[in-house]
Every structure is written in structure tokens, then in C-alpha cells.
Amino acid sequence: MGLKRGRGGENNGKKPGMRRLMMNPFKKARPEGWLILLGAVLMLAATILHPPLVDPYDLQKAYHEFKHAQFWIGDHILMLIAISLWLAGLAASKAYMARNNKTSDFGAGMMFVALAAWILILASELTILPILGNKGTDVKVWEAVFSFGLLSGYFGFACSWIGIFCYGMAMKQSGGTFPKWFSASARWSGLLAFFGIIITCLHFDFGYFVIPVTAGPAFLWTVWLAILLLSGRMH
After folding, report:
1. Using CA atoms, how far apart are residues 53 and 208, in angstroms rounded to an integer?
2. What are the sequence ranges of the domains in the chain?
3. How far apart are CA 142 and CA 140, in angstroms?
4. Burial of 124 (0-12, 13-18, 19+ CB in 10 A)
5. pLDDT at residue number 28
6. Of the candidates 209, 208, 212, which has an alpha carbon nearest to the alpha carbon of residue 54?
7. Alpha carbon of 220 to those of 40, 173, 215, 225: distances in Å?
């Protein structure tokens, strides 16, 4: 578990090995890295397309944004694909954190819980969106689905941030070749993002500022994890 170190001995600095690495830099790339990276890029795109909504009880604003959004259904389809790739890649990468480690297993379990929650959330929204009409009953149904979806989304992300924190703890416990900053950043960014969810749920208006500031470092950590997996430096 950890980052690969160069082999010692007389072959350590030979050019043929370097040429082979340059000819095929992704030969030892881990497929989990592609899942995480592609999911992260698509999540950014879906977030840009989605109206900024943080309060599950501000139904008037939510319905107004829905009526004036051009890509609402397409954006939710994109988010479903993106978050499924991202969380599946994170869950599958547990073996690179620490093998036979309960903390790593629990972290992966949190990723799967988050994935299940998001599939339920987005599937329910995609089910109700196409059949919405102008009747008051339909609006009430949409409002209920929206409140459920946004509040459950906070729960889903909280689980993923706990998972990242657990990965950081597993790396620390394994005593592998990970740099200290990499495992420490997983722990602290995961905690920061988790407390950001709590602060947002206590005062939803803070979410416009709190969510980007607190979730950003943890999200960037997952991107860096993907880069390490794609570079073949993790084993």
C-alpha cells in the first residue's frame, strides 16, 4: 500500500527504463484513477449547470429556478453519471490505502452508502421531473421530492467525506510509503468538509460560502488521488 519507490542498485539510473516509461506513461495506470478523475470533471460540469440551491425548505426559490432552468433534466442525468463514477472509483481504491484494514473497509463502506443515497436521490428527481404539469398537486409533489433530495444530498456527501477521513486514518495506520502530507490532508480535508455540512444544515444561508470553502480541499484530494493512481505510483 502506498507510493512506489525506485529500486536500488546499478540499474536505478539507466536510460532504457526511462525511455520505456516515457513511451507508455499509463502502462501501470490504475483504472480506479480514471473513474475518479472522469467523475470529478463531470461533477464540476454538472455543478456549473445546476442553479445554486442550498436550502431544502426554500421551495419558492427552488421551483422558480426549476421553471427557468434550461438543462435541469440533462444536468441531473449528468450528475448521476458523474457521482456514480466518482464514488465507485473512491470505493474501489481502498486497497491502495491499506490492505486488511478495518478503517479502510469502513471508509469504502461510507462511499457505497453515499453512492446508494445519490442514486436514490437523483433517480427520484428524474422520475418526477418529466411528468410535472401546472397543477397545484404536481407542484406539491415536486416540492416534497426537492426537499427530500437536497437534504438527503447533504447526508450523501457527509458519508463521502467521512470515507475520505477514514482513508487518511488507514494510510496513517498502515505505515506505508505515503507522504505524511497526503494522509494528513485526507484526514483534515475530510473532517473540514464534514463539519461544513453540519454548519450548512444549521444555517442553510451559510451554504453558499461554507460548502465551496470546506468541500473544496477534500474534492481536490480525490483529484490528486486519481493522478497518483493514473501515474502508477500507487500499489
Report:
1. 8
2. 27-231
3. 5
4. middle
5. 62
6. 208
7. 9, 23, 9, 9
Q: How many whole angstroms separate alpha carbon 28 and alpha carbon 21? A: 10
* Residue 156, number of CB atoms within 10 A of its CB: 22
Q: Measure the CA angle with vertex 66, ends 63 and 67; round to 5°.
A: 90
Quick check: pTM over 0.90? no
Average pLDDT, the chain: 83
**Which three three-digit cell numbers place residue 7?**
529500486
Burial environment of residue 77 by CB neighbours within 10 A (0 to 12, 13 to 18, 19 or more): middle
Which grid coordinates are listed for 232?
502508477
- Which runs of consecutive H residues, i.e. helices, occur in the chain? 15-23, 31-49, 59-68, 72-92, 94-97, 102-128, 136-174, 180-202, 207-231
Q: What digits encode the pLDDT tens for the residues 111-130?
A: 999 999 999 999 888 887 76
